[in-house]
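Lecture 7 notes: from sequence to structure.

We start with a single chain of 191 residues. Read the sequence below before looking at the structure.
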Amino acid sequence: MAKQLHANANDRAKTRALAAHLYSAHHRRLLAIGKRNSPTTEDAEEALHDTFILFIDHFDPNAGAPPLAWLTLTLKRRCWATYRRQQLLHRQQPLPTTDTTTSDTSNELLDPSRLPDELAVVAANVSEARDKIDRLKPDERRALSLLAIGYSYREICDLTGWTYTKVNRCISEGRASLRGHKNKKGAKNPA
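Now the structure, written as tokens:
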């Protein structure tokens, strides 16, 4: 037990010395990599700082991994994680809600310079689209709405707590419903 603690202390001292050397020798290069993979310089600097802390805490000098490659990969991952987290926070801001029962949004979509026949077609299309969306199951509506505003399947899983399979099913069945196809077992889709 005492030998193991002594070995851990020696490894930690080696790692700290190696981190100090790598920081002084490669700081500019690593910061440039961080800037290329981060939206802001501040995010890159923070990611580089976090990477060196992780290096000191987790790098094993006896494992044979190249320390500069370890730092570079960890730095990129930290930058990407920060960017993804910022994107999720930005997307989670509440969207403005409209009450379709009190305001007729089809009037907002109509261009007054169109001919009356064109306006009638647009109004019918808007009304038909609303009816189709109203007939969707709540989970299908939610998944399609999140997809429409730019979330990936994986991000929808994270936001809703659903499995990837459920997200995929909700989106494919919702799309089939919107197209007017039945997507149930045993029912045929019209060609």
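Residues 95-106, 183-191 have pLDDT under 50 and may be disordered. Keep this in mind for problem set 3.
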